[in-house]
Amino acid sequence: MNYFNDLDDSKKGITIKHLLTMSSGLHYPGNEAMIPSKNWTKFVLEQPVEFEPGIQMKYSCGSSHILSAILQKATHMNTAEFAKKHLFAPLGINDFHWYQDTQGTAVGGFGLRMKIEDMLKFGVLYAQNGEWNSKQIIPAEWIARSIHNIPTLESQYGYQWWIMKSNKEECAENKTFYAMGMGGGRGQYIFVNQDRGLVAVFTTIISDDSLLPLQWFNNYILKE
To answer: What's the predicted TM-score (pTM) here?
Structure first.
């Protein structure tokens, strides 16, 4: 993985936080361009810089894949194995499959399959500030950082979580954050509202309107 050490000066200012918030500034030509490449991590890192890191949020599965590569380099463990040991096993998630690229890096931006009840467990973990069965699985401080908008970015996005927009200042603390995937022509969603202790999971075959489940959650669950 020497390509991490060979970055040009325009990319050396990119941090893990920038990758988490999709604000690295790296151009991302899309999954259809990355997938056929021989080395996904190298492909993403070789893309040109479009804007200064931390200025603009631009969704990129490439950023998430770089995070997986960094995790594997830092821990000397495959991301899937790391997650299994430190996250999935404590949550009782045993039936999952995580695809990897040709270099053996677990896919960062997509490619994880699990049961819907296990998606729900992950949402509950965040609703409970990282605690599960009286054990702190994820630091509460990390949960808090993950679900807050980054002030320098205009988009409603945290650390790999979308933040649901609200026009009412009095509802700023009563907010919902959610994960959204669109793999295999299907949609997968995890909605979490900590104030209400509310977690909801959707899977749908609706692929032409990714915002429809958000409307369902807002109109039929959150308002109840």
So the answer is: 0.88
